[in-house]
Amino acid sequence: MEHQDQSNFFDAAPLSVAQFIGQINAKIKPINAKIIGEVSEAKPGPTGHVYFSLKDENGGAVIPCAIWKSRYNLFGIELKVGMKIIATGHCEIYPPSGRLSFICDSIELSGVGALKAAYDRLFKKLESEGLFAAKKKRPIPRFARKIGIITSRQGAVIHDFLNNIGKFGFQIEFIDSRVEGQLAAEDLLAAIKTFKKRKVEVLVVMRGGGSLEAMMAFNNEFVTRAIAAFPAPVIAAIGHDKDVPLAAMAADAAVSTPTAAANLLTSSWQEIFRALDHYENIIFGSYKKNLEQNKSELARRVQILANFKFILGDTKRRLESIITKAIAAMENGILAAKQNIAHWQILIESHDPNRQLKLGYAIAKINGKIIKSIKHAKVGQDLDIILGDGIINSNIKKIYDRKKEN
Length: 406
Hints:
The chain has twelve helices and 14 strands. It is an alpha/beta fold.
C-alpha cells in the first residue's frame, strides 16, 4: 500500500477486510523466494493438496506452506516430518482464515546425500520395470531429416549443436525449455507432449553439465518415463559427472555434449560423402590408369584409321563402279523382261478362247464340262452353247456321227 498523509488517511473511506487482504496479496504475490527448512508437519487436504510447515533447524521461525496436488505429484517427493527441503514459491494470505501461507511452485530435497538417496531409489524402481533395458533401445534413424530439439534458448548448448549439425537439409524444430533445477520438469514435460503431436523422426533433449541439484529435472520420474515412451527415438545430450541422469538412461542414445549429438545425427550423411569421395578416387584413378595404358594403343589405332581411310576411298571407287555396272545390267534385264512380257501377252491373247468365240466359234458344255467329242453326249441331255456374246441352253434331240456318214 502506498503511504497516505494524515489528512487524506482520516478522510478516506474504510476498506473491508477482504479489500485490505487483496491489497496485501497484490503486493506480496509477485515476490518469489526460495527458502530452506525442516518439515515440521505435513498432511494432505481433502482435494489432494498438501499442507505443511517449514521451520528453521534451530526452531526459531516457522511458516505454513501449501503445494497443490498436481505439483506435489510431479516432483515425486513424499513430505515427512523432519525432512529438510528447499521450497520455491510466493506468499499470500488466505482470506477465509486470514492466514499467511507460502505457496510452493516446487519442492526439492536439500543436500547431496538426500538427493543421491532419492536418485538411487528411483533408479532401482525404474530398472526393475525394465525401463533402461538395452532391448528397448531403438536405433537412431539413418538419414533422418525432421528433428525436434528441447533445450534452453539461453547459453551455448543450442549454438554448439547448430554449429555442428552441418548443411544436410535438416528440418529442425526447437522448443525453449528450462533445463535447470526442479522447476524445469514442468517445461520439459510440456515440450515432450508438444513434440508427440509433431511427428519428428528424432527428438534431442540437451543441456550442459551440472551438479546433482541442477540435474533434478532429468532425474524426475515423469520426465524419465515420458522420454522412454516417446514415439520416436530420443537422443539425450545431457552432460554429467558421476551419476548419469535417469532421463539419459531412458533415452535411445546418450551422449555427453550437443556436438556429439549433432555428429550422431550427421554420421550417416557424412558416410555418403565419404563413400562418394572414395568412389570418385577409384573411378578417376582407374580412368587415369587406363588412359595411360591405352595411349600407345590409341596412337596405333589412329594410324590404322588413316590407312582405313585410304582403303575406304579405294573401296568406294570400286563400289561405285560395281553399282554402275549393276544398274546397267538391271536396266538391260528390265528391258528384256518387258519384251518377253509383250511377246507372251501376244501369245496369250492369240490363244484366248474369247477371241475365238468372237470369230464365230462356240464351246459346248454338259453339266459344266466342255465336250470335245460326240462320245461324251447323249440324246436328251441339256447342252450349253457358249458364244462370244452369251450362252444358249438347248436339249440334244439327235446326234450325227461324221465318220459313219462318210
